[in-house]
Q: What sequence folds into this?
């Protein structure tokens, strides 16, 4: 009788231990996959570069600040620290993964414009012009993705390693600050889905569609298209 009880206890302990080890290994794999997608490693400092609010140098929009908070939460989940800079930041990201948030239209994030010109020559961002249907449109691969403010908007998301750096730039260039926030919110949760639909997580450029903004704000986003081949072409 006592032997049966002892065997039962040992079996339960072993079973519980195996379940704990399996869960721990599963969580570790999840963290490693997420870290690989975003290009970070535990203990690293991530550089977050935020664009300026229109006509307010040195001031970020409310939703871009929320986007920075999302990135800080992501970094915390991956065991990383965060350093925030404005879009006027100059120099190499070096050994820090850079999250550059916001488009260059209107001078909002000058650094984004530099990244696009240097590494994504196949992308055209049309300037703001309220009288023009193409205002703030993203053009890549022969297609224009129009800006329908507050209804349907697009975000260009790219990952690449600058020639002078050891860590990647993760560029989030939306048609509005709502679109920027939507893309980060979406990718933080659905990175595995996106990773499974692109050819490489080491270097990529995708478009994310944000729809139903009037009802769902930044919570409805989806992968529109992988445009890596067209975006990086020279």
A:
């Amino acid at each position: 009788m006592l032997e049966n009880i002892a065997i039962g206890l040992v079996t339960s302990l072993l079973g519980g231990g195996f379940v704990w080890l399996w869960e721990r290994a599963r969580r570790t794999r999840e963290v490693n996959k997420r870290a690989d997608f975003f290009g970070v490693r535990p203990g690293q400092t991530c550089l977050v570069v935020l664009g300026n609010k229109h006509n307010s140098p040195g001031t970020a929009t409310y939703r871009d600040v929320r986007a920075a908070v999302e990135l800080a939460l992501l970094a915390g989940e991956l065991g990383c620290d965060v350093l925030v800079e404005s879009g006027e930041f100059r120099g190499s990201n070096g050994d820090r993964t850079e999250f550059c948030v916001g488009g260059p239209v209107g001078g909002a994030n000058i650094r984004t414009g530099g990244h696009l010109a240097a590494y994504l020559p196949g992308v055209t961002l049309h300037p703001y012009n309220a009288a023009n249907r193409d205002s703030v449109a993203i053009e890549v691969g022969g297609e224009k993705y129009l800006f329908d403010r507050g209804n349907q908007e697009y975000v260009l998301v790219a990952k690449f390693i600058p020639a002078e750096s050891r860590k990647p730039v993760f560029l989030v260039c939306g048609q509005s600050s709502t679109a920027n926030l939507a893309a980060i919110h979406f990718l933080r949760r659905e990175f595995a889905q996106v990773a499974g639909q692109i050819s490489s997580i080491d270097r990529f450029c995708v478009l994310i569609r944000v729809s139903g903004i009037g009802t769902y704000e930044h919570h409805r986003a989806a992968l529109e298209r992988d445009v890596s081949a067209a975006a990086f072409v020279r």
In short: The chain is about 40% helix and 20% strand. The chain has one domain: 39-231. Residues 102 and 135 are 16 Å apart (CA to CA). The first helix runs from residue 2 to 38.
